[in-house]
Amino acid sequence: MKVIQHLNKSKSTLFSFEILPPLKGKSINSIYESIDPLVEFNPSFINVTYHREEYVYRKREGGYLEKISVRKRPGTVGICAAIINKYKIDTVPHLICGGFTKEETENALIDLQFLGIDNILALRGDAVKTESSFVPEPNGNEHAIDLVKQIVALNDGKYLYEEEMTEHTSNGGFCIGVAGYPEKHFECPNFGTDLKHLKAKVEAGAEYIVTQLFYDNEKYFNYVKLCKEHGINVPIIPGIKPLSMKKQLQSLPKFFHIEVPEELADAIEKCDDDKKVKEIGIEWGIKQCKELIKFGVPCIHFYTMGKSESVKRIAKTIF
């Protein structure tokens, strides 16, 4: 079932979460171990992230350095298929612009169709770690909206380098989700520009929005209000990640360009070990989720990062 169908038919707040593919060499069992504790809460769908290549340099004879492309977390599509087969839960693979030509994107979409996967979260993706800014692949999609348009075209039977397929069947096509930023995408000069880009993605065919993680619900409430004022009326799913380590006070704002509320930061600063930090993170997550459910959010989407304990304890309280 498509994500938008889950959202439209439910009269209460749904539960979903996101997982990472395991590091290369680990078995699928590491994925199952992170999913098993959360199955009791009847997740409507599970997102599986996509991680693009990284570049490493290896010394060769004569002192030369060879630049090698390495993918440390492959397997997004296969993991989605395995989850559907084992749990009968819908999956949402992430598909990104970075590292893909348009032809490779089309081939990935065809693979997903054959596997019966009809949901996609369409993202531009991050820059390669060795690059200061995002650089699109030659003959690749430059922005998330370009990826959305390509998916919509394929839904309509329009393939690259081909005339429209008269016998094309897509089972209704892919349901497309996109990302939203309650605290503004860090590359946008202002909120208005950010919302303009978001509205364009929705008008191009995106059916729902999943937000970047946040710790201040007021930012989400204001974001929903601003979206509606700008004519963005698709469901906006809040993304939640429980804090679990003290070092995240520095790493999360730096990496995700978000703020940690003073009350939460002060409480964590007083902790002398991560065990106490985890407890505070769970308490804050429960408080956030209760407020969000009261607000009437369609779904709460948890960023697990492969660790289920905190999410399980929050879910046990609110679902």
Short description:
This protein is of the alpha/beta class and 319 residues long. The chain is built from 11 helices and 10 strands.
Detailed description of the structure:
The chain is an alpha/beta fold and 319 residues long. The protein has a single domain, classed as Alpha-Beta Barrel (TIM Barrel). The chain is 40% helix and 18% strand. It contains 11 helices and 10 strands. Strands 1-2-5-6-7-8-9-10 form an 8-stranded parallel beta barrel, surrounded by 6 helices. The protein has a two-stranded antiparallel sheet with strand order 3-4. Helix 5 runs parallel beside helix 6. The longest helix has 22 residues, at 274-295. The chain is globular and about 60 Å long. It starts with a helix and ends with a helix.
CA gyration radius, whole angstroms? 20 Å
CATH-assigned fold name? TIM Barrel
**Strand content range:** 15-25%
Total helices: the number is 11
Low-confidence stretches: none
Major sheet: size, sense and barrel closure? 8 strands, parallel, barrel
Helix content: 25-40%
The count of domains is 1
Q: Mean pLDDT, nearest integer? A: 91
Shape: globular
Helix-strand category: alpha/beta
User: What is the correct CATH architecture?
Assistant: Alpha-Beta Barrel
N-to-C SSE series? Answer: HEHEEEHEHEHEHEHEHHHEH
What separation lies between the terminal Cα atoms?
21 Å
Strand order in the sheet with the most strands: 1-2-5-6-7-8-9-10
Number of DSSP-assigned strands: 10
CATH class equals Alpha Beta
